[in-house]
């Protein structure tokens, strides 16, 4: 199946501009494509899933892990249309860190749609951040 249509970014004028925060309100896809559903990636590194103590490093590592999965599907961050963020003890400082790191990997105007869920804890002790994604070819 060949897909000649690109995802269309739709940010209704009646809603706030989400671009400064590193996401889009919606993305529309008109034709069938290969989709990749990516499980939550944390900031753990290596076989033993070693976690840094600080939030920023965990975000950076989680994005590196996400990039590894994307590359295994011959995709990039530009293919991602939806992300879900899980942040332990979410606050404004952590949101600013996330936004700064997101801007580094999403360089185009086609920012993914996003849901952020503050949580009290994640699957493993010490995990502060997790991101899952849906990518579209």
Automatic annotation (TrEMBL):
Q: Which molecular-function annotation in GO is an example for this chain?
A: deaminase activity
What InterPro entries does its record include?
RutC-like_sf, YjgF/YER057c/UK114
Alphabetized SUPFAM superfamilies for the sequence? YjgF-like
Cellular component terms, GO, for this chain's entry?
Answer: cytosol
Any Pfam family hit: Ribonuc_L-PSP
Q: Which Gene3D superfamilies match?
A: RutC-like
- Family, as annotated: Belongs to the RutC family.
Name of the protein in its database record: RutC family protein yjgH
From the UniProt record, report the name of the gene that encodes this protein. Answer: yjgH_2
């Amino acid at each position: 199946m060949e897909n000649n249509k690109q995802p269309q970014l739709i940010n209704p004028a009646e809603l706030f501009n989400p671009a400064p925060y590193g996401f889009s309100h919606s993305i529309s896809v008109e034709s069938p494509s290969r989709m990749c559903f990516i499980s939550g990636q944390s900031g753990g590194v290596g076989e033993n899933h070693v976690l840094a103590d600080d939030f920023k490093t965990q975000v950076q590592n989680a994005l590196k892990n996400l990039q590894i999965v994307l590359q295994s599907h011959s995709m990039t961050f530009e293919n991602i249309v939806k992300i879900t963020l899980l942040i332990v003890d979410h606050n404004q400082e952590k949101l600013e860190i996330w936004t700064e790191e997101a801007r580094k990997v999403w360089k185009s105007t086609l920012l993914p749609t996003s849901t952020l869920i503050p949580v009290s804890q994640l699957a493993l002790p010490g995990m502060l951040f997790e991101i899952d994604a849906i990518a579209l070819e």
